[in-house]
Design brief:
The structure holds two protein chains of two kinds. By secondary structure, chain A is an all-alpha fold. Chain A contains six helices and no strands. Classes of the chains: A mainly alpha, B mainly alpha.
């Protein structure tokens, strides 16, 4: 574990922890942006440049902004004095801790815990990704295009203000 | 040099933080934030396995992450539209208040 991974990993984990525990929801969204940025840096460190910049464009540029817009539209911009945890919130935290212990034990006891050589293959260029999207992955591409169209139309229909015609 | 298990442990930690928050917060928007964190942790796992795998010239790890990012964005949009619509009806975004099927 080198210093770069330690710093980026700490920032990502701190952003995730802040996004889940802060009281002010706008602060939660900003910590989420920090976590997304940390993930993008980790993708760049692993050599997946397209995934890193796609993460920044889509998650930071669209999903985080969408979350802030939803916070504004639902009047959640002030931090209230009520409690932030649900009725049985220790159960949720305990489930998270137990799952992390299980996953950590599985990772440490797996063959991946020995140092694997980091293979030095070149990252795919955008041209190669585009060619493979049109040849090998054309069916998932069309399916995702259909999904995005349906999601866009569905989100607009769900969130549009209904005009009350029973006046 | 960072090994594969460091990335896997970090992905597992962020996944469990997202899961714990999604299960124990009252606001529906924070639950969606937790779900986004879980999806990002799984994407990190895919990229790490692609990099440390036997043949990284087959970049299927990057392709599945591209599709996963697109699907997660679509799901976040629809989920937030649902939250906005529920807020319009119930004037509340707490998950405890959505307990009736009657509109």
């Amino acid at each position: 574990m080198d210093a770069g991974f330690a710093i980026i990993g700490f920032l990502t984990l701190a952003g995730a922890a802040g996004a889940m525990t802060l009281r002010n929801l706008v602060h939660c969204a900003l910590c989420l942006v920090l976590a997304f940025g940390g993930f993008a840096l980790l993708y760049l460190k692993l050599g997946a440049e397209f995934a890193g910049f796609a993460q920044l464009l889509v998650y930071v540029g669209a999903v985080a902004v969408l979350i802030v817009f939803a916070l504004l539209l639902t009047r959640n911009i002030e931090s209230t004095g009520e409690r932030i945890g649900a009725r049985d919130w220790p159960v949720g935290v305990a489930i998270g801790v137990i799952l992390f212990v299980l996953l950590g034990a599985a990772i440490v006891n797996s063959p991946f815990s020995h140092a694997l050589p980091e293979t030095r293959a070149n990252a795919p260029t955008v041209k190669e990704i585009g060619v493979s999207l049109m040849t090998d992955y054309v069916l998932p591409l069309e399916a995702v295009a259909l999904l995005l169209t349906a999601a866009m139309i569905g989100a607009v229909i769900i969130a549009v203000r209904e005009t009350d015609s029973r006046k | 040099m960072t090994e594969l298990h460091s990335y896997m442990l970090l992905a597992a930690a962020v996944f469990c933080v997202g899961l714990a928050g999604a299960l124990s917060r009252r606001s529906a928007i924070v639950v969606l934030i937790g779900i986004e964190l879980m999806l990002n942790a799984a994407n990190l796992n895919f990229i790490a396995f692609w990099r440390f795998g036997p043949n990284p010239e087959v970049f299927s790890g990057i392709m599945i992450v591209i599709f996963s990012i697109a699907i997660a964005a679509a799901e976040a949009a629809v989920g937030l539209a649902l939250i906005i619509s529920i807020h319009r009806h119930l004037r509340s975004t707490k998950v405890d208040d959505v307990n009736e099927l009657k509109g």
